[in-house]
Amino acid sequence: MSCSCCGYGQAAERQFTPAKAAKELGHYRHKGAGQTTRLLRDGLAKAGLTDGAVLDIGAGICALTFELLDLGMTSAVAVDASAAYLSAATNEAARRNKTGSIEFVHADFLSVAERLPKVSLVTLDRVICCYPFYEPLLEQALAHAERGFAFSYPRDRWYVRWMVAFENARREWRKSAFRTFVHPAGRMQEIIAGAGFERVERRGTLAWSADVFVKRS
After folding, report:
1. Domain carrying residue 180
2. In terms of pLDDT, which residue wins out, 46 or 1?
3. Cα 106 vs. chain centroid, distance in angstroms?
4. b vs e for 145-171, b when ≥16 Cβ sit within 10 Å of the residue's Cβ?
5. Which CATH number is 73's domain given?
6. Interior angle at CA 49, CA 48 and CA 54, nearest 5
7. What is the per-residue pLDDT across 33-73, written as a single tens digit (0 to 9) for each?
8. What's the total number of domains in the chain?
9. What is the largest CA-CA distance in the chain?
10. Per-residue DSSP letters for 67-128?
11. pLDDT in the model for residue 8
């Protein structure tokens, strides 16, 4: 791994704290999955991509992982750079009696991609916007997907870019190294299509897109 990737991991650990993990987990327990998680879950269900194993990259508290296991996925590998979020996810897995179905991996995905298995489905929910190196992230994620791929990402619109710039300015003022990004949607679609996938579902909001792809036979 390059120093820049290591720097991302350190920034993510400082950004995604135990307090934030506890707050997000509490919201999930009382109000259910967040908006983009629901969009991806429903899109995957409609596309028939709810069986086999899932690799959830940037899994956080594993909300999408739990939703997909409830829909019929048999097992999951959950990768996240935040120890606090994976700790919260581990506790929730025990509460749901899902510990035996999930392998938790604390790492920057790119640093461990070569040793992770290929699976039926790969997901990234609100992950690519937190990662500066979106091209290798997508390429490695797609290389692990045997049947389906799904991700949510900020729409490339002026108002979304303004909001992201404002949040990054606040982080800089607070001396946080963590940043978020609006990556070019066209280039991301090119990478996905080049890996042999075609989009079968697109759901979204004013700020987010949630896309589902299947691998062409």
Report:
1. 3-215
2. 46
3. 14
4. bebbbbbbbbeeeeebeeebeeeeeeb
5. 3.40.50.150
6. 165
7. 999 999 999 999 999 999 999 999 999 999 999 999 999 99
8. 1
9. 49
10. HHHHHT--EEEEEES-HHHHHHHHHHHHHTT-GGGEEEEES-HHHHGGGSPPEEEEEESS-G
11. 61
